[in-house]
Amino acid sequence: MRSEKQKMLAGEAYRPGDPELQADAQRARAWMVRYNTTLAASPDERRVMLRELFAHVGEGAVVRPPFHCDYGQHISLGDGVFLNFNCVVLDVAPVVIGALTQVGPGVQFLTADHPRDPELRRAGVESGLPITIGANVWIGGGALILPGVTVGDDAIIGAGAVATRNVSAGTTVMGNPARPRGKA
Fold first, then answer.
1. Residue numbers annotated as active site
2. Predicted model pTM
């Protein structure tokens, strides 16, 4: 029998009220209370704290507080990643952000999903799909990256865009839903 956490990480329906998951979420909440008071701390001091919770934090990675996540332990940041103020990462599935990626303020990475069937929603199950962001990506302020999206290297996601599907390497997308920018 698989645990609810194992189901969650496999992208299957799981129950978020599971005691193991609740303990992991409480650990992340306690960490956020501490982390979100470190605005005056150096990036090196904050990086030490990030490494307490995240799966991986590359050299030179910066996450400006305030920052919010579900668990933290499913987040991986490459070298030189920059997340500006008020980023949200719902990491019920892995979120991997490649080296040198720049993320504007208020960007949300949303791996969590809910059943389309109302009976299953009433039953209290949810699921999630991983998000993978390539290297040297620029994500404009207020953008939303939805469950299961992969963004290729060197892509640009415009401010306020909603990425509902994969974005190819080197492509610029904008709008809701995010679509490749037309040629001028």
1. 114
2. 0.95
